[in-house]
Amino acid sequence: MGMRLKSLVGGAAVLATAAALFTTTAGPAQATIQDCTTYDFLSIPYNQAGGQQRSVSLGSGRQAGLLVARIGSPLQNHAFAKITGATKPGDQVWMDWSTTGGNGHVQCGPFKVQNNGSPNTSAAKAINYGNTSWVFRACGRIVGGSTKCTAWWHPSN
User: For residue range 20-46, what is the model confidence (pLDDT) as tens digits?
Assistant: First the structure.
């Protein structure tokens, strides 16, 4: 395969991957954890603490929350999703991020709970305070349950 064709095939694959990450529904998680790296999400501990901005009940004593913590190098505020409560293995959490106010978004995750009662987090994304079109929400699904998401959040709202 010639150099030009390899570039075209590689470029098409990158565009297809980016297009697959943008969705307009909160349905089942389609992205993979590795896709989070495409948009510079930061890997964080499964039990990362932070200030809760939004939350939603997933049922059966479990919640998904959107949190903000000062992390990274250099330190700056990042948003991330976290599942907590009476979690079970297989429960999922992810974070949706939009640069268009929620009209189309990137889904980072899902991240699965490994042990009974353990939290888990999504990867974290730096907050752009100057652009109110950048919004975040936390989503989750418990085993046997349906997907639930918080309302979209930006520090100005």
Answer: 333 333 433 444 566 688 888 999 999
The string of pLDDT tens digits covering residues 40-64 is 899 999 999 999 999 999 999 999 9
C-alpha–C-alpha distance, residues 20 and 22, integer Å? 6
End-to-end CA separation in angstroms for the chain:
52
From 32, 49, 30, select the one nearest 41 (Cα to Cα): 32
How buried is residue 65: exposed, middle or buried, by Cβ count under 10 Å (0-12/13-18/19+)? Answer: buried
Other beta carbons less than 10 A from residue 35's beta carbon = 19
Closest Cα to residue 153, out of 87, 90, 68?
A: 68
What b-and-e string marks burial along 99-126, b requiring 16 or more CB atoms within 10 Å of the CB?
Answer: beebeebbbbbbbbbeeeeebbbbbbbe
Q: Decide if 56 contacts 137 (C-beta within 8 A).
A: no
